[in-house]
C-alpha cells in the first residue's frame, strides 16, 4: 500500500451499478497536449515526490511513436515534456530503438523501472530505469522479437524480477496469450511460463482473440490484482476492453480468478471515436489500498481514467470468474 499521497478520485455517480466508472472530466490528456503530438494514449503514471510522474506515449504528426516524461501535482492535470526521453546506456551499450510505445512504469527497490514496446527488427520489450524522470538509462531488451505488453511486477518474487508479456507477430497480431518470465538481474530472462490464454468465444467473447497485461499488478488480500486488455475481432476490426485477474501471490503464473464479463469496454464517445475506434487499453493503476484509479488509452488517441473500490473489484472478479 502506498501511503501519504493524494489519490486522484471521483465517487461513483449516483445510480451507477458498474464495478468501475469513468472520470466525468475524461479525457484527462488530449491528443494535441504537446505541440508535436498527433495523439497521446497508452501511458503510465506513478506517485513521485509530492505528486506524480509518468511516461507517455506521444505519436507525432509524422505518426512516429515515442515516449515522453510528464509530471502532475494531482494525477489529473499533466505537464508533458516537449521532447522525447533520451536514454543513456544502462546495463548494455545496445540501446537501438526504431520506435517506442505503450510504456509501463513501476518502482522496484530503489528506482523506477520502465518497460515499453521497443522497435528492434520489429516489436519487442525494452527496459529502462530512472531515479528522477530526468535522466534515463536503457537496458538490454528482455526478449527476442516479436513481443508486446511487457509488465513488471513491483517486487521480486522468490528472489527474481518477474515480467508478464505477450509473444506476438510483427503486425496487428491476430492471437496472443499472457506469459511470465523471471530474471535475476533485469538482463537475462528465462523460466518462461504461460499464465493465461484467450477465452473461448462462447464463454467470454470480449477476450476471445487476444489478451495482454495492462497495469502493473498490485497485491491484495486475494493475490495480485492485474488489469488486462482483451480483444475480440469483429466484422469492423479489433475491439479492446478491460478485465481483471487475480494471480497467486507467490506463484503468479497461477491464475486464481479472471473476469468473465469485462470491467470497462468502449462506450464513451472518446473510446468509440479516434484514430483506432473501440479501444480501451489500461497501462497503469494508482491505488491507496482501498481505491484504484486506472489510466487507459482511449481509441489510440487520448488518455482516460476509471475508478473503483478494490474490495468490490476483488469480490466481483471472484464471483464472476471464468
Ligand atoms: C496494439 C498496440 C496498441 C494499440 C492497440 C489498438 O497492437 O499498437 O498500442 O492501442 O493495438 O490499436
From TrEMBL:
One of the Pfam families matching this protein, by short name: Glyco_hydro_130
Source taxon at top rank: Bacteria
Gene3D superfamilies associated with the record: Glycosyl hydrolase domain, family 43
InterPro entries per UniProt: Glyco_hydro_beta-prop_sf, Mannoside_phosphorylase
Gene Ontology MF terms in the entry: glycosyltransferase activity; hydrolase activity, acting on glycosyl bonds
PANTHER family assigned: 1,4-BETA-MANNOSYL-N-ACETYLGLUCOSAMINE PHOSPHORYLASE, GLYCOSIDASE
Protein name, entry field: Glycosidase related protein
Source organism of the structure: Phocaeicola salanitronis (strain DSM 18170 / JCM 13657 / CCUG 60908 / BL78) (Bacteroides salanitronis)
Amino acid at each position: 500500500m502506498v501511503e501519504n499521497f493524494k489519490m486522484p478520485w471521483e465517487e461513483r455517480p449516483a445510480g451507477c451499478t458498474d464495478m468501475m466508472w469513468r472520470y466525468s472530466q475524461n479525457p484527462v490528456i488530449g491528443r494535441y497536449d504537446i505541440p508535436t503530438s498527433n495523439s497521446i494514449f497508452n501511458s503510465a503514471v506513478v506517485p513521485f515526490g509530492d505528486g506524480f510522474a509518468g511516461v507517455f506515449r506521444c505519436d507525432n504528426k509524422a505518426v512516429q511513436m515515442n515516449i515522453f516524461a510528464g509530471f502532475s501535482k494531482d494525477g489529473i492535470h499533466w505537464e508533458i515534456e516537449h521532447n522525447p526521453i533520451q536514454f543513456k546506456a544502462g546495463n548494455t551499450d545496445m540501446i537501438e530503438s526504431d520506435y517506442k510505445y505503450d510504456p509501463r512504469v513501476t518502482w522496484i527497490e530503489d528506482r523506477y523501472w520502465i518497460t515499453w514496446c521497443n522497435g528492434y527488427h520489429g516489436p519487442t520489450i525494452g527496459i529502462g530505469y530512472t531515479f528522477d524522470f530526468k535522466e534515463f538509462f536503457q537496458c538490454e531488451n528482455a526478449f527476442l522479437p516479436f513481443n508486446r505488453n511487457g509488465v513488471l511486477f513491483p517486487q521480486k518474487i522468490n528472489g527474481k524480477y518477474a515480467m508478464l508479456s505477450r509473444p506476438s507477430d510483427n503486425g496487428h497480431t491476430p492471437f496472443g496469450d499472457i506469459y511470465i518470465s523471471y530474471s535475476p538481474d533485469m538482463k537475462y530472462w528465462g523460466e518462461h511460463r504461460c499464465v493465461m490464454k484467450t477465452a473461448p468465444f462462447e464463454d467470454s467473447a470480449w477476450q476471445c482473440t487476444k489478451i495482454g497485461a495492462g497495469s502493473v499488478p498490485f497485491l491484495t488480500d486475494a493475490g495480485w490484482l492485474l488489469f488486462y486488455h482483451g480483444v475480440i475481432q469483429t466484422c469492423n476490426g479489433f475491439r479492446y476492453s478491460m478485465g481483471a485477474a487475480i494471480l497467486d501471490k507467490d506463484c503468479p503464473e497461477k491464475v486464481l480468478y479472471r473476469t468473465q464479463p469485462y470491467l470497462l469496454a468502449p462506450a464513451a464517445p472518446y473510446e468509440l471515436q479516434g484514430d483506432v475506434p473501440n479501444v480501451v487499453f489500461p497501462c497503469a493503476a494508482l491505488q491507496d489500498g482501498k481505491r484504484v484509479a486506472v489510466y487507459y488509452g482511449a481509441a489510440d488517441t487520448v488518455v482516460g481514467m476509471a475508478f473503483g473500490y478494490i474490495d468490490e473489484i476483488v469480490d466481483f472478479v471472484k464471483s464472476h470468474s471464468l
